[in-house]
Automatic annotation (TrEMBL):
PANTHER family: GANGLIOSIDE INDUCED DIFFERENTIATION ASSOCIATED PROTEIN 2-RELATED, MACRO DOMAIN-CONTAINING PROTEIN
Alphabetically ordered keywords of this record: Hydrolase
Source organism per UniProt: Streptomyces fragilis
Enzyme class name: hydrolase
Gene3D superfamilies: Leucine Aminopeptidase, subunit E, domain 1
Species lineage: Bacteria, Bacillati, Actinomycetota, Actinomycetes, Kitasatosporales
Segments forming domain Macro: 1-172
Stated name of the protein: O-acetyl-ADP-ribose deacetylase
One Pfam family cited in the UniProt record for this chain: Macro
Length: 172
């Protein structure tokens, strides 16, 4: 982040946020799934999936690699773009934290390319992908702090109180 970047925290539903860009905790297929991915596609409507399919057909025939990020329209969400990133599956036997940091760095890089000034992130990898939320919060916040970006607000939107507390520990 830079001197003009603020990190804010909200407990709630990321699909209800008014921001320039919403980050999606996607999978490599870019074709949807459960969790926050399912919620974004449900509320955002079919335009998002249509652009994801086009990305698979053009740039990402083998899928979006873990740790990378790519943008589509935000469809019916109150946002301009969805930035899809693929978090690593947690593995207690292998340190994949650099890939989780990369998700945040790359999402902010894409946000800068788009000119997004407010970006909402979910707690990437902490659901289906099994990452312990305290550790994920530490990595996510450190990665944002270490990334030079023109984004003015990085808003972590945490679904439950447990995740909110984990992020609050890191930010305050
Ligand atoms: N708003 C904010 N956070 C949410 C919402 C929401 N509407 N819904 C869930 N969360 P997950 P992952 C939280 O499983 O672990 C998908 O099937 C949730 O409580 O969505 O990165 C993809 O297609 C958790 O804290 O993402 C992939 O296959 C966090 O979002 C896979 O899951 C992330 O949980 C990705 O797994």
């Amino acid at each position: 982040m830079t001197a003009t970047t603020r990190i804010t925290l909200v407990q709630g539903d990321i699909t209800r946020q008014s921001v320039d860009a919403v980050v999606n905790a996607a999978n490599s297929s870019l074709l949807g799934g459960g969790g926050v991915d399912g919620a974004i596609h449900r509320r955002g409507g079919p335009e998002i999936l249509a652009e994801c399919r086009a990305l698979r057909a053009s740039r990402y025939g083998r899928g979006l690699p873990t740790g990378q990020a790519v943008a589509t329209t935000a469809g019916d969400l109150d946002a301009r773009w969805v930035i899809h990133t693929v978090g690593p599956v947690f593995d207690p036997h292998e340190d994949r934290s650099e890939l989780l940091a990369s998700c945040h760095r790359e999402s902010l890089r894409v946000a800068d390319e788009l000119g997004a000034r407010t970006v909402a992130f979910p707690a990437v990898s902490t659901g289906v992908y099994g990452w312990p939320v305290d550790d994920a919060a530490r990595i996510a916040v450190a990665s944002v702090r270490a990334t030079a970006t023109a984004v003015e607000e990085v808003r972590f939107v945490l679904f439950d109180a447990r995740a909110f507390r984990a992020f609050a520990e890191q930010v305050h």
